[in-house]
Amino acid sequence: MAADLEEKTDRYERMLADALAEAEPRPPDGTPLGESAADCAEMAEAYLEDGRHFRDEGDLVNALASFSYGYGWLDAGVRMGLFAIPEDTELFTT
Q1: Domain residue ranges in the chain
Q2: Contacts of the segment 60-67: beta carbons below 8 A, 24+ positions apart
Q3: How far apart are CA 63 and CA 69, in angstroms?
Q4: What is the assigned CATH class of domain 2-84?
Q5: I need a surface site. Which of 28, 47, 82, 87 has the fewest CB within 10 A?
Q6: For helices 32-56 and 60-79, what crossing angle results, to 10°?
Q7: 1 has a pLDDT exceeding 60
Q8: SS3 state at 84
Q9: Which residues contact 62 (CB under 8 A, 6 or more apart)?
């Protein structure tokens, strides 16, 4: 069981980091939608940092939860049209 949790935690960390690298804010900065995109990206980055902290402390359950929440913020932003993503990516539910 522990190996499964460790593998899943590592996979979700990579997935969130990759998603952050691929998602480009679509609306211009300074507009309401641009601010929403920035907020989503900021939340996802904060959850990535939190997850890494939890993992470093040996708390894989909270690390996985953090990575999952961060990914959820980005995925929701993509679905709302706040981010442009590559057409060939499978990281998001479009």
Answers
A1: 2-84
A2: 60/2, 60/5, 60/6, 60/9, 61/5, 63/9, 63/13, 64/5, 64/8, 64/9, 64/12, 67/9, 67/12, 67/13, 67/15, 67/16
A3: 10
A4: mainly alpha
A5: 87
A6: 160
A7: no
A8: strand
A9: 50, 51, 54
> What is the predicted pLDDT for the residue at 33?
82
Q: What is the CA radius of gyration of the chain?
A: 14
90 dihedral zone (left: phi>0; alpha: psi -120 to 50; beta): alpha
Span 14-72, pLDDT tens digits: 999 999 999 988 876 677 788 889 999 999 999 999 999 999 999 999 999 999 999 99
Sequence length of the chain is: 94
List the one residue out of 67, 74, 75 whose CA is nearest residue 8.
67
How many C-alpha atoms does 25 have within 13 Å on its Cβ side?
A: 17
